Structures are given as structure tokens and as C-alpha cells.
């Protein structure tokens, strides 16, 4: 049995659901200048908005105006928690404003009040791929140490303002993906090894400083890091592949190592030494890392990958793409993401064994090309099967392996913009939203079969699958 206080919920991100990209005082962030892509056509960063290009994050699913309806639907499913993010640019539109934007603070006050109306606990990500564009234009993004204090000012402002409404905070979404999506993660245009290492250093210091400040604001806060689940299997039993896989996976886990243990591990320092990368350390930084470790680890899990002697960690062009090898034993989604339910048990044990800290799944789910049946419904049995298989492995990790798991949040609990492709047609939700890849539609919401299945799952605390 899962613990009775298990947080069953769902997840979204501001930039992928809110829309209203210039409303309520908000200014642009790095996602607002990225065009839509397609399954195999990458999205484009356009420093100047192009009149004939489509920018899906500008409207998304208009959660900004539909949040009451959407949260009511989450409550109908029985959500205990809802993982969402605050857009930095709603609170400090330029990222460096002297005072916060009251309209932005008000918007999230209303969202959190709506959640609490139904007994839903918010789980709030402070930065989910949406660094203010002005931070990039004026400071050059996270390679500039100044951004540390700008982020800490933003973070402590919302931590203080929502202290009595939000207990669970996630620092930087998928912080290990700075290596592969540096623009989304850190507003880095020139993604050299050095720039990524420097920006990552500043983000890790910013996270630690935020945790230290959080302890002063409320002892009730639970501060979590957010790790992009890079869980890989060796491409063969060749020791070179086994080592290559180990090194690849550890390069991602490095970001969790620092946030959970409070220091840069030797294997990373030796790598930087070999590669002539000099970290921009400042006196006092080591103490900050040491004192700013997190309470729990949240992570995303979509797939496992395969890695080996030929996988070069620093040349993986997209955090969600293959590491060069496909596991032909596994089925794949319509977007070629390998489906591996057993891998979730492996992932939960790997993280728990390495850090002995409580875990929280804050992203998992199946992006699919949902279609209506003649009866006007969406019979997404494939999504129910995916979730049932993953929940069985998740329960085994808890009941058979003793993993401490705080909760589960299905990614895209309502259809939202795909991060990698900008499409709406890559649908994850329990709730269908009538918007197409060009932003056209009625924006009406519709319950899929999985909506009712998840309702029963939550009501039985994961027993009735
Ligand atoms: C993760 C991001 C999420 C979400 C997810 C699914 O990396 O943290 O924001 O988008 O990927 O990816 P996609 O939306 O491209 O299917």
C-alpha cells in the first residue's frame, strides 16, 4: 500500500499552459521567442518575433483565464496536489525590476486560493525553462553571476508572499538539462562547454542561496531539487559500454549530487581540470553549497535510454533525444520516446539508494495523438495502460524496496504545449483541450476516459487500477 498521505496529482508549467504572454504586466521570457516545431522539425529561436511564425507559448491553453475551470476539473479527479510553476516574468517582468508586479502576485494568489478551496496542495516550481528575456538581453543570461542575486530576489519574494499557501517548492526544473537545452535552461546563446559549466555553477549557487533564505522564512517549507530523469542501460556487456553508460548517467546525476550533498564531486572537478574549465568561484561559495542542500528530490520520468562507449554526454543535442542508442526491446510512443515501466522502479531505487532522501515524481506520462471516436469521446486506453504499468512498478518500489515516495504528478494533466516540439497534438492530458497546433479552436475542455480512471485510482489510493 502507498502511504495514506500520498500526493496524487498532475503537473503543468506556466510557459506551456498560461498563455496571456503579455497580460497582467508580464513581459517576455526565453520561451516566448521560440516558434512552434513539428515531430522532427526543431523549434526556432527568433530574436525578433516574425509576423508569419507561430509562437505557441503566447496563447498555450489560456490557463490564465481558465484556471478556475481547470482546477475544478483537477478537484473532480480528486487531486491531492497540483505541480505548477510561477512565471518569473509575471512577478518581475524584466527579471531585475526594483519592485514586484502586483498583478502577477495577485494572479498566483488566486490560483493558490482556488487550489486550497478543493484541498489541493500546490507544488510550485520557481523556474521552469522561462528565464526573463531581459535577463538574457541585459546580462547575457546565467553566465553572469549577477543573475544569482536577481533569481534569489525573485525566489524569496514569492516564498515570503505565499508562505501560508505553498509548502512544497521546486527550485529549477530539470536543472541537468542545461547541458542539452541551454537556451531554455539558462538563456545561453553560445553554448560552449565553459559557458554551460559557468551558468550551471551560478544556478547551483542560486538554488543553495534560495534554500538558505527559505529556512529563514518558514520552517514549514519543503525545498526540492528537480532532476530530468536520465536513466540509462549499458548498450552491451562490453566493459567499455558499461563504463560509458555509468559515466553518462553520472554526468546527469552530478546536478543532484551537488544539491543533495552540498559540494562539487571530484569526478566533476577532475573533468573540468582536464578540459581547462575554471569555475567562477567566489569566497564563501563552498559554504553556500554546503548549507543549501535540499529536503527532497523531485524528478521527471518518461523513458530509459541506452548509453555506452560512444555516447558523448556533451554532444547530446536535446535533453529528450536518444543518447545515440535505441533499446529495441522497448516499445516507443508516437514521438519515439521509449516506454519502460520497469525502468521507473529502477529509477526510484537508484535515486533513493544514492541520496537516501524522500522522492517525488513530478513528471511522467504519455504524449499521444489523441483522436475522437464516433461517440465524441476520447478512449485513451493506451494512456491508461501506460499509467497502470508505471503505477504497478512505482508501488513495488515503495512496498517491496522501501523507497520513500511523497507523491506522483502526471505530466500534462491537461493537454498543454509540448516543450520539445511546440505542438498541441502531442497530448498528455486526462483533459482534452480543443486547440490545434496553430492555436485555433474553441479552447473547450473535455474529459477523456483516463480522467475517470485516474479518479478511481486516487479514490482507492492506487489500489483500483
Ligand atoms: C520535460 C519538461 C516538461 C515537459 C516534458 C515533456 O523535459 O520539464 O516541461 O514538456 O519534458 O516534453 P514534451 O512536452 O516535449 O513532450
Automatic annotation (TrEMBL):
UniProt GO molecular function: beta-glucosidase activity
Keywords: Glycosidase, Hydrolase
The keyword Metal-binding is annotated on this UniProt entry: no
One GO CC term, this protein: cytosol
Pfam family, one: Glyco_hydro_1
Top-level taxon: Bacteria
One GO biological process term: carbohydrate catabolic process
Classification via Gene3D superfamilies: Glycosidases
InterPro entries the record matches: GH (IPR017853), GH_1_N_CS (IPR033132), Glyco_hydro_1 (IPR001360)
PANTHER family given in the database record: 6-PHOSPHO-BETA-GLUCOSIDASE ASCB-RELATED, GLYCOSYL HYDROLASE
Family to which this protein belongs: Belongs to the glycosyl hydrolase 1 family.
The protein, known as: 6-phospho-beta-glucosidase
Organism: Dielma fastidiosa
